[in-house]
Structures are given as C-alpha cells and as structure tokens.
What does this fold into?
Amino acid sequence: MSERVFISPAKYVQGKNTIDQLGKHVDHFGSKALLIADDIVWRIIGDRVTTALSASDVETEKADFVGEASRHEIERIAASAKENHVSFVIGMGGGKTLDTAKAVADELNARIVIVPTIASTDAPTSALSVIYTDEGNFETYRFYKKNPDLVLVDTKLIAEAPARFLASGIADALATWVEVRSVLAFGGKTMAGGVPTIAAEAIAKRCEEVLFDYGIPAYESVQAKVVTPALEAVVEANTLLSGLGFESGGLAAAHAIHNGFTALDGDIHHLTHGEKVAFGTLVQLALEGRTQEEFERYVALYMALDLPVTLEDVKLKDASREDILKVGQAATAEGETIHSGFDVTPEEVADAIIAADRYARLYQAKQR
It folds into this structure.
C-alpha cells in the first residue's frame, strides 16, 4: 500500500492591507531579506514592503526578475544573493516570479516568503516550481524539500489588479477537483510523492464548491476594485485550497494539456496559465466522457468570466490535425502529470481536444 502524503506551507495569512504587517511575520527569519520582483510590482508595493520590514529591523536587498522562470534567471539571481549574504528570500508578484524566488531560496538553502500580488495561479503554497526555457517553453518541474515558510496575500492588492488575473486563477483552481478525482479513481500518485489523502480530497472538492458559488461575484468585485466576502472566499480557494488540493491530491490531464500547448508556436503563448488550463480542463472532461450537462456547467462559468472555451478562443482556430497531435504527444510525454490519472495515447488526447471544442461551440450555439 502506498504512503499517504500531505504537505503545506508553514503559515498562510490573508486579508485586506495585510502586506503592511509583513515585518511582524518574518522578523524571526533573519536580519536581511532578498526581495525578488519585476519593475511593475516593485512600483506598486516596493516602498510598503521595505517600510514594513524596516519597522521590524529587517534590511532589504533588491533583485529584479526579468523574463522567464528559467535556469539562467535562477542562477543569475542566486549568484547575486550569495554575494550579498541574505538571510531569507521574499518573492513578490505573479507565478513566474514566485517560482523563481522559490528556486533561488532553494539554491541558498534559505527560508522563502511568498507575497502574491495577483490570485492567478495556485503556485504560491507549493513546494515546486514550473521551470521554463528562456524562450518560454515548459521544461520541467523542480521540487523542493519543503513548502514556503509563509504565504501572505493582501486581498486589497488582488482587488486592484486586472480582473483577468482573478479569472485565470479561478480557471486554474477549477481544474483541482477535476484532476484530483481522476487521480483517486486511477490510483495515481500526487505531486507530494504519495497517494491522495482524505484531507486533500476534501479540500479539492470544497475548492470547486466555493468557485461555483462565489466565482462570478468575486470577479465582479475585482471589476469594481472592492474587497468583499465573495472575493476573500475565492482568493482563498484560488491560492490555498487549490494549492493544497493539487499538490497533495494530484494533477492529471488538464495541466498536462496546458504543458502540451507549449509545443506550438503562435498567439496561444499570450494567454495566461489559467486561460490555457481552462481549455485543458474541458479537454479532460471530454477525455473522461463526462455528460454534456456536466461539461456545460464548466463552460457556462468560464464564459461568464471571459475565459476561453474553444480552439478559436485559445488562438488555435486554424490548427491542423498535425498541430493538435503535437499537443497530444507533448501532453503524454514521459513524466507528464496525465499519467497519474489516465492511460491514454497522443491520438486519444488529440481527439478529446477536437471534441471539447465542438462540445463548447454546441453550448454557445444554444445560447444565441
């Protein structure tokens, strides 16, 4: 019998203007922090973060994140951090910045603090990074010995970010239960290295319930740039519930298909992670032979959130069968997450991609 494994960050803090309390949560981590962020994030919260840390007698060293969460970027920032003798690392911003920060902390064998400024993925709580090439193609997953020491989410920052990012996070989180239940049924392994726990199953299922209940009002809250109970619930689902659910419950086809899309050139790479996962989730539902009624439940929510549901929406309207097969081949490559929930061929994945597009267009036609 395989081991059950559940992992999680040491501490999770969420609330309005909570970024101003960062110093009191990290003052025991050391006297000097490396702050990793891109130019945009630095302009938005840089002064507030340094002020909060200074109030707790924590010095700061700035590192600019540029480009991709790639090996070269990780090595560049880590080399600079070693020269400056930092005590711990704080990653601030979106998924790729946060994944880079986790890798840098691992290189330094230092504590890691994650401060997401958008709720667009479930990456913040996990003990892994998605590593890309310098050109932006998926390369590998990098796993760590532990999860972040602290994840701090300021919901006022989330409310002030573009609504597209929250919608992307909802799409990423909606894949959680869809993938976890397939791993459970298949008897597959999770990203944590064991079989799903009862806790992970319960968290993943509750994650989906919250998103269907509050996804649309939370999206409207961000459109209005206000913090509401609905937004607080969805931010927690996007970040904590989905993060715990996917890592200790498992990934399957939806994320493998997302990774498979990197095999293609073109405008699809301008879509967010969550936007591609949204379509990947529909493909997984088609691959499983779920009913049209269940399929359309997801399509309806995606459409309400302006998320892609067809090949045209993911910039693949003119993709050939050969192109779609390339996605299927990449999604079923050795080591891909699809193998935790399915025993399928590239051709079957390609068929499901085409079928998901048709099923979604059928729903759209009925709404006209």
